[in-house]
Amino acid sequence: MTAPFTFNTAPSIRFGDGLLADLGSMVMATGQKRVLVVTDPGMMATDIVAQALASLAAAGIKSSVYSEVEADPPEAVVHAACDAARAADAGLVIGLGGGSSMDAAKLVALLVPGHQQLPDAYGVGNAVGPRLPLILVPTTAGTGSEVTPISIITTGKSEKMGVVSPVILPDIALLDPGLTMSVPPHVTAATGIDAMVHAIEAYASASANNNPVSRQLAVQALGLLGGAVERAVHDGSDRQARADMLLGAMLAGQAFANSPVAAVHALAYPIGGHFKIPHGLSNALVLAHVLRFNAVVAPAPYAEMAPYVFPALGQMGPQEAAAAFAEEMAALAKRCGLEARLRDVGIPQDALDLLARDAMNQTRLLVNNPRLVEESDARAIYQAAW
What we know:
The protein has 16 helices and nine strands. By secondary structure, it is α/β, with parallel strands linked by helices. A six-stranded parallel beta sheet has the order 1-9-6-4-2-3, with helices on both faces. A three-stranded mixed beta sheet has the order 5-8-7.
């Protein structure tokens, strides 16, 4: 018998090239007249925000913009964005940008009604609704945040905390591949590998809620991403590659939103927290090493996934295919121009003990790993990655 499971996702997913032009009509259909757009300075330097605002204005929607989101947003950014929403009397929130902007927008929608404070929402299932209506518009193909019930925030100096609840799933996920066309090669590579990590960890997750829907979405995502990431990196104008990446990232987001990620993310978070390495690159730096570690005792899921990305690996036995999968993922990241070692991004060897200690705080993630990770294991993985 298939074990009981729960699968939640955004109630409306809208995909299409040029779809941002319809943002105003989507908001108008909700009955809301005032919105806050949550984004970042990099987005403000493009014409994408202007396009969104023009669509809203054409529909008679009054919009305000909070544009100070930063990577791995700290709590102060969330509070400032909430203040901006209240000042604008916003009845709806739009997250426009990468994962950080969308994560911040989720919490603005949650917190502005005033049902709880941010610290009380941290953890799994602690968010209290109802929230403001929420539309998320990704401009990178990586995080899948537009369909996940997860928001990751930096607390204190370097530690990350998550709000995990179906309450913060958006009402609409608007996916327009055209918005990703100008993403530079290195960011394209990092976000693409990030999306692949989401699919890989979702498929292999030890979570009790690992389910057939998530697994099917994961392999569908890997099939799209495996062929598209490298093409998009080397030819950013390849519209089909951009569309496949965005769709693959969304499918991977749906997968891991319901079958949670594990040790790759647990070890990546301290790298980002302490050294401000972008999340996708942090994942890529430890991915192959965690796969090698896990495959020793749990090769089957990696062997099952491998042919969806690298068809030749389907002719191998489980242990051989799982090992080859780790090597091929490392080679793919290298071909896409990503740094291969922790030292390549300026992380000193004497920081590895600190990283290992901090990784052990990610119990929400480590519990999903197919193999138990002790602090000594984390230290050894970081050493191998260094």
